Structures are given as C-alpha cells and as structure tokens.
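Write out the 3D structure for:
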Amino acid sequence: MAAVVRPVAQMRTMRIEDLAVVSAMETDSYEFPWSIGIFGDCLKTGHPCWVLCMGAAIAGYGILSIGAGEAHLLNICIGPAFRGQGLGRHLLGRLLDIARWHGAERLFLEVRPSNPLAKTLYESVGFNEIGRRPRYYPARNGREDAIVMALELLPA
C-alpha cells in the first residue's frame, strides 16, 4: 500500500501576481469581499501580506497592519477547497509569529458575530472580546456589529 504524500504548508510573502488568486478566494469566501484594489493597496503600503501555500497552490492568506507596538489582523482567509484541515489555525499562528517579529506586543481584530467558527478559533488561541463596533460591517439587511478581540503577544 502506497502512502499518500500531502504537501507541507509553507508561508511566503504575497506578490502582485498573487492578487487575482487571492481576490478570487476572497470573493468565494465572503458575501462582502475586499476588492482586488484593496489587496493591491495593502501591498503598496507595505503591510505584511502573506500567503499560505500547499505545494504550488495558494491555500489562504493573511494581512497585518503593524505599528507602535501593536498589530491589527486586517484579513485572514483559507480557501474553500482547503478548509477543515487545520490550515486556518496554522496560518493564524504564523501571523502571530510575524507580528511578534515586528515587535508587536498585542494584536487586535474584528470578527462578525455571524462567523462563530472564526470567533471560536480566535478564542481557542487566547483572543478575548474587548468591545463592539456598532454597525461596522455591511450585511444583507443593513449593517452588522463587529466583535473587537485582542491578544497579548507573549514571546513565542
């Protein structure tokens, strides 16, 4: 019986040529996706933008904003074809490492109340709810609040 060899997840910086794949993954994943222009602007402004690859395929991506000892997780996504394999947890862990390497002492994020899987993942790695942003996200029937979460970044 031959063993099935699964590619190893690898991180690399996002490149301009990745934007079409990343934008398509975003559109397939969210009802109100970022535009390809927003991703391009994140690259142009120098935000840490990373992709998680399985072999030659981009399986997910994450974007941070870092400054003044703080980081903000702007966007994180695992593509539909790669979900359910623990890659979201892996990607989030690597993004936490990147934030630490850039000197961030805490990381903030917003998550929709209608995304309980993401909220559960964030809580499982130590994020805590610290507030709400009323009517922050567009929603099918108007606007949806954002749950604001924070994590103190202790040395790895």
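The chain has a mean pLDDT of 95.
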